[in-house]
Design brief:
It contains 15 helices and 10 strands. By secondary structure, the chain is of the alpha/beta class. The protein starts with a strand and ends with a helix. About 5% of the residues have low confidence.
Length: 413
């Protein structure tokens, strides 16, 4: 697994990050546990959540995704191994149906403090690694809206919204209180991101570490105004929807609607269903086929290679393709085969040493000293997944047995 720094912080996050917005809707807790177990074994160390998840949002499932992640962290005892990222819902007046969230979510200081306490409780933790504003308080273009709609008057807009300054100051208070390690924004525009940077610089508040926006082969708007800001301000992109709601897996091509697929079940996900997107998807599919790739591989690789991307958030309702395929990266495959190679070396040298044990007990004991030395050295510096654990365990045994075999011939032959 590849790890990158999260913005200007010292937090290292896995390039592939597990999205959880289906937990509680399309996925049960047992499904969620299976996904999180598998992701962790592959080296994924970051889970992305939000208070309003799962999607589609409704009152009966509100907060269930955070609850399931919190249950997993507690049952596995892995809180210190996982970077937890969650989000407070933005202005509820911009989207009807959110009255069940604090009477209508807003990005006021009072609501931010209430929201983070509730998320901490659901996640069963004392601190959230990355806390984000899910969408802006002000009226602007996000969630697939490309054009900016001008408000009726500047005066009406200023009275209707809590200031970004109030929101950022409240987020800074959370960092000072030790409830949050770093802060970020989501579904934000270039103006909004630079305004947040201006505010944090002016009042010496914790800097913005990340921005979570959509980015994929069908949506490259981030490159227009945000890519340069990301580079110059050291603000990492948490790219969501890298497969464009599954469109870029190819499973919806030619009007197909697989059973239990997201676009089959829910009409709300129409952002990439237009004719231009369908033509582009067909062209990308042909390009991938011409180079011996699947459309999923091509789409994921495009996002992964971007220098402004720290996190590529994948989300799936099943642990089968494309979920498992995108997680089983080249380093994981290497460690998988390396573990079997080490296992072979272990049997070769260890059993030779065991055969000679009956004659030279001292050197056999000495060889196990080398085993513990090598094992704990490699474990401390290189352990990142189950297969790496196997690799260095057996390699350590192999090396210890080899040393015994070597000293036997050196001193007695």
């Amino acid at each position: 697994m590849i790890y990158r720094a999260l913005g200007n912080t010292d937090i290292q996050v896995s390039l592939i990050t597990l999205g959880t917005m289906t937990y509680g809707e399309q996925n049960s807790q047992s499904d969620a546990f299976e996904q999180m177990d598998y992701a962790y074994e592959q080296g994924v160390n970051c889970f992305d959540v939000a208070e309003m998840y799962p999607i589609p949002p409704n009152e009966s499932t509100y907060g269930d995704s955070e609850v399931m992640v919190g249950n997993w962290l507690k049952s596995r005892g892995l809180r210190d191994k996982i970077v937890v990222s969650t989000k407070i819902a933005g202005n509820g007046q911009l989207h009807s149906g959110f009255k069940y969230i604090r009477g209508g979510p807003r990005l006021s200081a009072e609501q931010i403090k209430r929201a983070v306490d509730a998320s901490l409780k659901r996640l069963q933790t004392d601190v959230i690694d990355l806390y984000q504003l899910h969408w802006p308080e002000r009226r602007t273009n996000f969630f697939g809206q490309l054009g900016y709609e001008y408000p009726e008057s500047r005066h009406a807009e200023s009275e209707d919204a809590y200031s970004l300054e109030e929101s950022m100051s409240a987020m800074a208070d959370l960092v000072v209180a030790g409830k949050v390690r770093c802060v970020g924004v989501s579904n934000e525009s270039p103006w909004g991101l630079m305004e947040a940077c201006r505010i944090t610089d002016k009042y010496q508040l914790p800097r913005i570490a990340s921005i979570q926006n959509p980015y994929n082969l069908l949506n490259r708007t981030f490159e227009i105004g945000l890519a340069e800001i990301s580079y110059r301000e050291r603000i990492s992109l948490l790219a969501y929807s890298p497969l464009a709601f599954g469109i870029l897996t190819g499973k919806y091509r030619q009007g197909a609607r697989p059973a239990n697929a997201r676009l089959t079940l829910y009409n709300r996900f129409s952002r990439y269903n237009n004719e231009n997107a369908q033509r582009a998807t067909d062209s990308y599919y042909e390009l991938a086929q011409a180079h011996g790739l699947s459309l999923t591989e091509l789409s994921m690789a495009f996002v992964n290679r971007q220098p402004f991307v720290a996190i590529n958030i994948i989300c799936s309702s099943t642990i089968s393709h494309p979920f498992s395929y995108t997680l089983l990266s080249l380093p994981s495959l290497f460690s998988f085969f390396f573990s079997f190679f080490s296992f072979f070396l272990f049997f070769l040298f260890f059993f030779l040493s065991f055969f000679l044990f009956f004659f030279f007990f001292f050197f056999f004991f000495f060889s196990f000293f080398f085993f513990f030395f090598f094992f704990f050295f490699f474990f401390f510096f290189f352990f990142s997944s189950f297969f790496f654990f196997l690799s260095f365990f057996f390699l350590s045994l192999s090396l210890s047995s080899f040393f015994f075999f070597f000293f036997f011939f050196l001193f007695f032959l």
